[in-house]
Amino acid sequence: MLTALLPIFMAAPLLAQHDMHVVILGDSNTSIGGDDCSQSKGWSKWFKLSFKPLSCRSYARSGATWTHTAQTKEDTEENTGKLSDNNVIYNQVLRLRDAVQKGQQPAPGLIIIAAGTNDAWFVDSRKDAFSKSAVILADSLDFIMRKPIGDIRSLPEAVGYSCGRLREWYPEAKIFLLTPMQATCIPEELIQKAGNLIERSANWLGAYAVRQDGPEFIEVEMENQKKTRTQDGIHTNEYGARRNGEHLTRVISRMLQP
């Protein structure tokens, strides 16, 4: 079980090129970097530049959640830019699979999923997100994988379901789950609660977890006084994105070392 709490921000030298293809899934703070990870307000641009992978592609969509609703269906075309039944991480997983099968995307060696913010933010629309503990994954992952996707409504189930498929299709890939960052519009206890469930789920799945709810990323007290790392208290500006992306390069590179 590989999990890491976020170390303090360090100005250490960034590492050389990594011999792997990277794909990134997530919500708006990832999607603002663009599908090709070239937009400066998204952390994915700065991660791509500093991590130096063989390739780096984002399948993230603004408004995406881990958790599903009773109406969620498989849908690789929808791109609403906001919360919806089908705007879920699992449909990004399906888009990735389709791209690999069509030869448009190399099979990934590193998969990063940065999500959970919208599950905490729109808790009234995702009422079952916090209904179960990650402990359920220990004995029932096989059962969860057989469920209809409309029944995958808690965070642990959703993390298990998407990561289970990724393990099935890309067994050699390293999977990193990034927990939500602090946000001025979301109560701290909900961000921490979502982060705890995602981190525990990573433990059960043998994935890597990186906590992003510390002050190394977005610090609510600072952003409430003056927007320094964000545009609006939740989405990064160029400074915040670069800081986050380069820090994630250090953290992930360190965790990948034998």
Structure description:
This protein is an alpha/beta fold and 258 residues long. It contains 9 helices and 5 strands. A 5-stranded parallel sheet has the order 2-1-3-4-5, with helices on both faces. The protein starts with 20 loop residues before the first strand and ends with a helix. The model is unreliable at 1-13 (pLDDT under 50).
Task: Report a brief summary of the structure.
The protein has 258 residues and is of the alpha/beta class. The protein has helices at 28-31, 43-51, 89-101, 117-121, 137-145, 155-169, 188-205, 220-225, 238-256, and strands at 21-26, 55-58, 110-114, 174-178, 208-210.
Question: Layout of SSEs?
Answer:
Elements lengths: L20 E6 L1 H4 L11 H9 L3 E4 L30 H13 L8 E5 L2 H5 L15 H9 L9 H15 L4 E5 L9 H18 L2 E3 L9 H6 L12 H19 L2
Parallel strand pairs: 1-2, 1-3, 3-4, 4-5
Helix pairs in contact: 2-9, 3-6, 5-6, 6-7
Q: What share of residues are in beta strands? A: 5-15%
Low-confidence stretches: 1-13
**Average pLDDT metric:** 92
What class, by secondary structure content? alpha/beta
Calculate Rg over CA atoms.
17 Å
Q: Total helix count?
A: 9
Main β-sheet: number of strands, strand sense, barrel status? Answer: 5 strands, parallel
Please give the alpha-carbon distance between the first and last residues: 14 Å
Order the strands across the largest sheet as they lie in space.
Answer: 2-1-3-4-5
Shape: globular
DSSP strand count: 5
Helix content: 25-40%
Oligomer: single chain
| SSE pattern | EHHEHEHHHEHEHH
